[in-house]
Structure formats: structure tokens, C-alpha cells
Amino acid sequence: MRSPHPTLRLLTLLLVSMMTIMASAAISPSLPRLRMAFEWVPGIELWVRLVVSLPALFTAMGAPLAGVLIDRFGRKRLLVASVALYGVAGSLPGVLTSLPLILVCRALLGLAVGGLMTTAAALIADYYAGPERGVVLGRQAAFMGVGGFVFMLGGGLLADIHWRAPFAVYLYAFLILPLILFFLPEPEVKRGAAAGGAGRVALPWSTLWQVYALAMTGMMIFYLIPVQLPFLLRRLGVQSSALAGLAVGVSTVVGSVVSLRYARVRQLLGYRSIMAVLFACMALGYVLVGMSQSYAAVVGGLAVSGLGQGLLTPNMANWAGEVAPEAARGRVMGLLTTSLFLGQFVSPLLAQPLIGAVGLSGAFLAAGGLLSALAGTFGALAWHARPRERSEAVQSAE
């Protein structure tokens, strides 16, 4: 089989990556209408938020298994199966009348996302190395951001028609399947079984646990935006789902622009310095959102937070990919996917009692305070380790 053109291979990877943000973005603006449709269900305030966050739990549970499977048996077959399941489980709630069945489909969607995101991350690490990998990871994050904006806005417009309509966007998966089959070759890498088992490959856990903890924390705080912001806007008098989708999409668009510059940022700064910068930007943005009294002010705060959010995912993926042994790369990326999506799932569970105590605006202000503390901590760590960080940045540029 002829090797596909590099541009087509890259484009396919980027289009696959967009599907991960769609898992929640597409239906986030319809949450208030979905709540009204099932308002008779006890505890609907929490259940309706779980419609968005439940996929994240099953992504977190399924990603490590996906990582082990692709290390042993290869990437492509699992990716194809995951994308097919994504299309079926994602779109089916659009015709269901039972909230429990909708939640079951959302759980299956989460398993599919775990498979496709882990595989996509491993393929990027397989296909690219050094500065080129940083460039590709930046583009991946940018595509995810653009996809978040497009599908958030589209989901909002469809939600104004009916709360069921946004589920149709998951049929996008079936447009991507032919591209995967034709343009993503199976990479030639050492399989875990051939190398004595991926579980017996020595992993740099001291670094990986730090990466995983940061990924989970960052995503947990970020997820206040898609899950809680539509409700905050309603309290500010914004009733349009399309406007809610547009507001949430602003942070992803700004993040996309920043993501495209990730490789350049990485040449200048070490991983911990980047964490300090991105947490500081997110902190300022969340404080601005928490203090906002108008739609325009909220959008401004989201734009500021997007400056940091655009660096989060590529920095975590590049850091993990750089230290991961080739034979265990799937497992390392699977655990990174688990960390990111566990943060998504935990977010509404932790936020709900906080919102009950201090309100929606107070929750954003509290998140801003936590982000400020993280920014200060990593700023201090980066300052004390600045000679080593400069050396790492130079090595990454070579």
C-alpha cells in the first residue's frame, strides 16, 4: 500500500481530534432546554449536567484499556471501531425518550472517545518527533478549539429549534471513517508484547504523575465553562442558546490561535514555565467572568481565559509524549486521556455544592483563586529550575 500524502495524513488526524471536543460541546447549549424536557425527574439539576460530563467518566475508564490494546495490537483497528461507535452512540439520543437510555448512550460515547483520543495521541507521537511534534500538537489543539466553536455555535442554533436536534452533529463520525481507512497507515513501532510486555517497560512515573495531576486539575477547572456558563448567562438574562454557544466558543477560538503558537512558546519556555503562564491567564479570565454583569463582559473574560486554555492540552501531550518509551506510548497516552476526562467528569460533581454555597459567579471567582495559586506555585518552581528549563527548551528546538 502506498504511503498517503503527509498533508492528507495530518488533516485526517486533525479532523479526528475535533471529535473529542464535540463529545460535549455540541449539546452544551441545549442543557437548559433538556432540563425543562425532563423537569419532572428528581435531581434533574445534577442529571442534566451529567448528560454532558458522563462521557468523560467512561472515557477516563476506557482510555487505559485502549492504550494497552493499541500497544499490543496496533492503532488503526481500534480507531475505526471507536469512530463507528462514536457516530452511533452520539446520535441515538436524538430519537430516545428515556433519560436513562440517553445516559447509557452518553456512556458508550465516552468509551468511543477514550479509544479515538488515545489512538490519535499515540499516532501523533508515532508519526512526528522533536519540534515537528510540537507544531502538530499545536495544530491539533487549534482544530479542537475551532471544532469546539463550530459545534458549540451549531449546537446552540439547533437547540433553539429543539433540544434533540444537536445530537445529529455526531453523524460527522461517518464522514471521517473513509479518511481513516485510506489516509492513516499503521505505524511501524515496537509492540508491547514483542518488547516483553508494555507493563514491564520502565516508565518515568515521577514526571508522569505530575503531568497527569496537572491535566486533571486544568480540565476540571476548564469544564466550568461548557457545563455551568449557559446557566450563568440565563441568570444574566441571556435566554438564547445560540448566544450561549457563541460565548463558550469564544474561549475555544482564542485558544485555537494560541495553540498554533505552542511550538514557538515551547522553544522559549520549559514545561513548568508554560504551566505558570497558562494558569495565570485562566485565573484572570475566570475572575472577570465571576465579576461580570453583562454578556459582553462574560465574553471578554472567556477570551482572556482562552489565552491559557490554548496551551494546556498541547503542553500536557508534548510533555507526556517526550518522556514516554515507544513500546509503552499507548499506555502513557491512555492515562493522559484518563486524567483529562476524569477532570471533566469530576468538575460538575465538585462544582454543584460549591455553587450551592457561593452561587455561579462565586464558583468562577473561587476557580480564579485556585488558578492564581497554581500560577504562583509553578512560577516559583520554574524560577528555581530556570537553567534546566532553558536547557530543555533548547533541546526541544533542536
Task: Explain what the structure shows.
The protein has 398 residues and is mostly helical. The chain has helices at residues 6-25, 31-37, 44-73, 76-91, 99-127, 130-161, 173-183, 205-222, 224-235, 241-259, 262-268, 271-291, 295-323, 329-384, 386-397. Helix 10 (241-259) packs across helix 13 (295-323). The radius of gyration is 20 Å and the shape is globular. Keywords: Cell membrane, Membrane, Transmembrane, Transmembrane helix. Resistance to tetracycline by an active tetracycline efflux. This is an energy-dependent process that decreases the accumulation of the antibiotic in whole cells. This protein functions as a metal-tetracycline/H(+) antiporter. Pfam families: MFS_1 (PF07690).
